[in-house]
Write a structure and sequence with these properties.
Structural class: alpha/beta
Number of domains: 2
Largest sheet: 6 strands, parallel
Shape: elongated
CATH superfamily of the largest domain: Response regulator
Radius of gyration: 25 Å
CATH class of the largest domain: Alpha Beta
Amino acid sequence: MPKIRLAVVDDHALFRRGLVSLLSDMGDFTVCAEAGNGKDALPLIEEFNPDIILMDLNMPVMDGVQALEAVRKTRKDQKVIILTISQNDDDLVRAISAGANGYILKNAEPEELHNTIIEVMKGYSILSPEMTEKVFASLRSARQSRGQTILSDREMEVLNFMAKGLSTRQIADSLFISENTVKTHIRHIMEKLDANNRAQAVEKARELGII
């Protein structure tokens, strides 16, 4: 099989040259271009047409996200892996939003980097394990916040009593409101959580992490 052609873009010359040597020794890859910043990389990418670009984030003149956005304007299918020290959530979101196919930390083992390049070449999107957990944590937090936002304080009170198994009468007595008012709150809760009954509403609330 032909070797995967790579471009390496990183402003730290020692790291870049070490990475180029490592990739060349792996046997599956050949480095066809290298640059110290995004601006210098753009014409080389057009000239050498790499299969995958390994791109640092924080670089002078033009950073990795800016370079990625510029690449996407003319090469929509270009595969780009961000290779960085940054575990910052905002950097991850910026990179993914700009169209990165992978986000790998520089402390990754050579085998992880090798496998990431192979998988991205196949069409998969890959994140470092540390960043994958951040994504899931962010999604869980967003789901919880969304659930808490769509329910009013009173609906949250009713929902918590529902989760405890209290009847409509018991909830009404506990909150000093009428049964009809409780029923109205329960109907609104089920509508907002897209639930068909009380049990499903409680289940969905637990999935969202709001109770």
